[in-house]
Amino acid sequence: MTQRSTKQIIQSDEELETENSSSIKQHSKPSEKVQQKDKETLKKTQKQLVALQKKLKKLEKGQQKGITPLNNHLDDSEDGPESEEEDSIMFSSSIKPIEVIPTPESETQPLRQVYSHDQQARQPTPLCSPSQRLATSSSTNDITKMDCKHRMERQSPLVEKRPLSPSATSSPPSKSLKKPLLLVVLANGVKLSSAPKTADFRDAQVRTLILRAVREYEALICTKNSFPSLSVHAQWAESCWAIAQIVPNDELDEGQRYKFTPRILGVIQRRGSTMCSRLLEPTRTQVIVCFGFRQGGKERGMKWNETSARNLYLNKTFHYKTLIDHCISEWHSGLFVQADFKEDNVGDFYKVSLANLKKWTSLNATVTTNKRKKLFDHAFKKLGGLTSGEPQVQLKGDTEERTQKELEGHTGETDSEGDEHDGEAGDD
């Protein structure tokens, strides 16, 4: 019995082994089929890649001729069977190297049809000209126009930077149209360390332009600010140099300008800084005549001068806060004491006076402007200035008689103080 049972066990073991081996063989056979199927799929995919390469070459040739045969792609994708084996990939129109697809280790994934506008937009493609679009066939005309419009809007940088018409842009003209600035040349023997002056420059044209710029600069000193900051000095000088070259000049071509140099800046600033000093002496003479200051060391004359100076300070608050104020202050002790008109001495007082004058003007802009204009016109005529235009009043009838009566009390040899006081009273 024991031997029989042993034999039965051995037989059962052998049967199990045979079953296991057969099952293993059965399982191994399907895996080989899958591998064979994968190989066939891979071969088909490679054939499709070869066909796509040929189509890609045709597309490149068509683009070189200006024809984009997109109908072939659309027809193939729309009319072809929707099977995994016949799916195709639509490539962008740009030239791009094709990489070798690695052999899959396991079951290959089915290919999908992919078409990305963003991918196509990132690739630079040539623009379609109107003549090239007209050369296409009627069947592809609409598609080509849409494709070109899409590319021009999303791809080409020329569409964004180049305007379609001159009115479509507000950018200034190109700098290349402007002529280069001419360089100024110094005369022979001029040392760079010397103080700048007009005679340092060789060309007479440059010297003439400097004198024009100096006149403009002096006008700003007299009317805007007598003691501007260094930065304002430089800005005014450069602006006056540009204005001087705008004046019509036969020797300079249209658009031709000289370069502004630091030495030209020094000449303009130096001449402008002496403007107030050059006006000081004529103003002193006029102050003595107009306000009746008495020269000499007599006690009666000293009291007269002291009282006159004090009254001018008290009653004419804003009318004389200028260079005239400096000349009046030289008589406040009764005797004439000459003082230097420099920024170190009068700069702080001038700035406070200028701020007060601006505040006074803002109280009533219309009235104060008319008063200042009247004062300027009166001084301009007294200094010999000529007004433009024909005179509006003629000496006839009552006007002639009134003028004759006014002249009876004058000799004409000295300035009339009565007329000036009358004019000042009328201004107040």
From TrEMBL:
Residues 212-321 form the DUF6532 domain. Pfam families: DUF6532 (PF20149). Residues 29-43, 144-163, 397-413 have a biased composition (Basic and acidic residues). Residues 1-11, 112-143 have a biased composition (Polar residues). Residues 76-88, 414-428 have a biased composition (Acidic residues). Coiled coil: none annotated. Residues 164-176 have a biased composition (Low complexity). This is DUF6532 domain-containing protein. Residues 1-91, 112-176, 387-428 are annotated as: Disordered.
